[in-house]
Amino acid sequence: MASLDRTDLRLLAVLQGEGRITNAELAERVSLSASACLRRLQRLEADGIITGYAAQIDPQAVGLGLQAFVRVQLAKHEAEAIERFVEHVNGWDEVIACHALTGDMDYLLHIYVADLKDFSRFLLDHLLNAAGVADVNSSFVLRTVKRSPSLPLSQLER
Questions:
Q1: pLDDT tens digits for 41-60?
Q2: I need a labelling partner for 71 at 20 to 30 A (CA). Which of 57, 94, 132, 157 fits?
Protein backbone atom coordinates (compact mmCIF):
# COMPACT_ATOMS: atom_id res chain seq x y z
CA MET A 1 0.00 0.00 0.00
CA ALA A 2 1.32 3.40 -0.96
CA SER A 3 1.99 6.00 1.70
CA LEU A 4 -0.60 8.76 1.44
CA ASP A 5 -0.41 11.96 3.42
CA ARG A 6 -3.32 14.21 4.36
CA THR A 7 -2.90 16.33 1.19
CA ASP A 8 -2.98 13.24 -1.04
CA LEU A 9 -6.20 12.12 0.66
CA ARG A 10 -7.76 15.57 0.18
CA LEU A 11 -6.79 15.52 -3.51
CA LEU A 12 -8.35 12.09 -3.95
CA ALA A 13 -11.51 13.08 -2.08
CA VAL A 14 -12.05 16.13 -4.30
CA LEU A 15 -11.37 14.15 -7.49
CA GLN A 16 -13.84 11.41 -6.50
CA GLY A 17 -16.63 13.96 -6.43
CA GLU A 18 -15.44 16.29 -9.18
CA GLY A 19 -13.37 14.40 -11.72
CA ARG A 20 -13.46 17.22 -14.27
CA ILE A 21 -12.09 19.89 -11.97
CA THR A 22 -9.15 21.81 -13.44
CA ASN A 23 -5.71 21.44 -11.93
CA ALA A 24 -5.77 25.12 -10.91
CA GLU A 25 -9.11 24.70 -9.09
CA LEU A 26 -7.94 21.48 -7.46
CA ALA A 27 -4.70 23.09 -6.29
CA GLU A 28 -6.64 25.97 -4.74
CA ARG A 29 -9.04 23.58 -2.95
CA VAL A 30 -6.19 21.65 -1.31
CA SER A 31 -3.93 24.67 -0.72
CA LEU A 32 -1.13 23.75 -3.12
CA SER A 33 0.53 25.51 -6.03
CA ALA A 34 -0.66 24.32 -9.43
CA SER A 35 2.73 22.74 -10.21
CA ALA A 36 2.91 20.89 -6.86
CA CYS A 37 -0.66 19.66 -7.36
CA LEU A 38 0.14 18.39 -10.85
CA ARG A 39 3.23 16.55 -9.58
CA ARG A 40 1.17 14.85 -6.87
CA LEU A 41 -1.52 13.86 -9.37
CA GLN A 42 1.08 12.40 -11.72
CA ARG A 43 2.60 10.42 -8.83
CA LEU A 44 -0.82 9.12 -7.74
CA GLU A 45 -1.51 8.03 -11.31
CA ALA A 46 1.95 6.45 -11.77
CA ASP A 47 1.58 4.58 -8.45
CA GLY A 48 -1.75 3.14 -9.63
CA ILE A 49 -3.78 4.86 -6.92
CA ILE A 50 -5.73 6.87 -9.48
CA THR A 51 -6.68 4.23 -12.03
CA GLY A 52 -8.73 6.37 -14.42
CA TYR A 53 -11.41 8.99 -14.89
CA ALA A 54 -14.98 8.31 -15.97
CA ALA A 55 -18.38 9.94 -16.37
CA GLN A 56 -21.20 8.80 -14.10
CA ILE A 57 -24.27 7.97 -16.18
CA ASP A 58 -27.88 7.71 -15.00
CA PRO A 59 -28.92 4.14 -15.94
CA GLN A 60 -32.60 5.12 -16.33
CA ALA A 61 -31.71 7.93 -18.74
CA VAL A 62 -30.05 5.48 -21.14
CA GLY A 63 -32.74 2.80 -20.94
CA LEU A 64 -31.23 0.47 -18.34
CA GLY A 65 -34.26 0.35 -16.06
CA LEU A 66 -33.68 -2.97 -14.30
CA GLN A 67 -30.86 -3.55 -11.87
CA ALA A 68 -30.26 -6.96 -10.31
CA PHE A 69 -27.87 -8.73 -7.99
CA VAL A 70 -27.36 -12.36 -8.88
CA ARG A 71 -25.66 -14.82 -6.57
CA VAL A 72 -23.96 -17.66 -8.44
CA GLN A 73 -22.82 -21.03 -7.19
CA LEU A 74 -20.42 -23.04 -9.31
CA ALA A 75 -20.70 -26.83 -9.65
CA LYS A 76 -16.93 -27.29 -9.38
CA HIS A 77 -14.26 -25.19 -7.70
CA GLU A 78 -11.10 -26.25 -9.45
CA ALA A 79 -8.95 -23.60 -11.14
CA GLU A 80 -10.06 -24.44 -14.68
CA ALA A 81 -13.78 -24.13 -13.86
CA ILE A 82 -13.24 -20.83 -12.06
CA GLU A 83 -11.15 -19.45 -14.91
CA ARG A 84 -13.80 -20.44 -17.47
CA PHE A 85 -16.54 -18.73 -15.44
CA VAL A 86 -14.45 -15.57 -15.01
CA GLU A 87 -13.82 -15.45 -18.78
CA HIS A 88 -17.58 -15.63 -19.41
CA VAL A 89 -18.32 -12.89 -16.89
CA ASN A 90 -15.73 -10.57 -18.42
CA GLY A 91 -17.44 -10.98 -21.79
CA TRP A 92 -20.92 -10.00 -20.58
CA ASP A 93 -21.57 -6.24 -20.85
CA GLU A 94 -24.64 -6.55 -18.61
CA VAL A 95 -22.38 -7.39 -15.64
CA ILE A 96 -20.89 -4.20 -14.23
CA ALA A 97 -19.29 -5.89 -11.20
CA CYS A 98 -18.50 -9.43 -10.11
CA HIS A 99 -17.28 -10.31 -6.64
CA ALA A 100 -15.98 -13.64 -5.36
CA LEU A 101 -17.64 -14.36 -2.02
CA THR A 102 -17.28 -16.41 1.11
CA GLY A 103 -20.29 -18.39 2.27
CA ASP A 104 -22.79 -20.56 0.43
CA MET A 105 -22.61 -18.73 -2.92
CA ASP A 106 -19.42 -18.24 -4.90
CA TYR A 107 -20.00 -14.99 -6.81
CA LEU A 108 -22.18 -11.91 -6.68
CA LEU A 109 -22.95 -10.29 -10.04
CA HIS A 110 -24.25 -6.73 -10.34
CA ILE A 111 -26.28 -6.50 -13.54
CA TYR A 112 -28.03 -3.73 -15.50
CA VAL A 113 -30.52 -4.54 -18.27
CA ALA A 114 -33.43 -2.74 -19.91
CA ASP A 115 -36.25 -4.79 -18.43
CA LEU A 116 -37.36 -8.20 -17.18
CA LYS A 117 -37.40 -9.59 -20.73
CA ASP A 118 -33.72 -8.66 -21.14
CA PHE A 119 -32.90 -10.13 -17.75
CA SER A 120 -34.59 -13.39 -18.73
CA ARG A 121 -32.60 -13.45 -21.98
CA PHE A 122 -29.35 -12.81 -20.09
CA LEU A 123 -30.13 -15.49 -17.54
CA LEU A 124 -31.20 -18.17 -20.01
CA ASP A 125 -28.83 -17.42 -22.89
CA HIS A 126 -25.70 -16.56 -20.94
CA LEU A 127 -25.53 -17.26 -17.24
CA LEU A 128 -27.30 -20.62 -17.07
CA ASN A 129 -25.44 -21.79 -20.18
CA ALA A 130 -22.06 -20.79 -18.72
CA ALA A 131 -19.95 -23.84 -18.06
CA GLY A 132 -20.00 -24.82 -14.45
CA VAL A 133 -22.91 -22.78 -13.05
CA ALA A 134 -24.85 -24.96 -10.61
CA ASP A 135 -27.28 -22.46 -9.06
CA VAL A 136 -28.33 -18.81 -9.27
CA ASN A 137 -30.40 -16.64 -6.97
CA SER A 138 -31.57 -13.23 -8.20
CA SER A 139 -32.70 -10.10 -6.38
CA PHE A 140 -34.07 -7.05 -8.19
CA VAL A 141 -33.44 -3.53 -6.99
CA LEU A 142 -36.69 -1.77 -6.10
CA ARG A 143 -35.12 1.52 -5.08
CA THR A 144 -31.56 2.73 -4.61
CA VAL A 145 -31.18 4.31 -1.19
CA LYS A 146 -27.50 5.23 -1.55
CA ARG A 147 -25.15 5.06 -4.50
CA SER A 148 -21.67 6.43 -4.23
CA PRO A 149 -18.66 5.71 -6.39
CA SER A 150 -16.46 7.36 -3.75
CA LEU A 151 -14.30 5.43 -1.30
CA PRO A 152 -14.49 6.44 2.41
CA LEU A 153 -11.10 8.18 2.43
CA SER A 154 -11.86 10.13 5.61
CA GLN A 155 -11.38 6.87 7.56
CA LEU A 156 -7.74 6.82 6.44
CA GLU A 157 -6.95 10.15 8.13
CA ARG A 158 -7.57 8.69 11.58
A1: 999 999 999 999 988 999 99
A2: 57
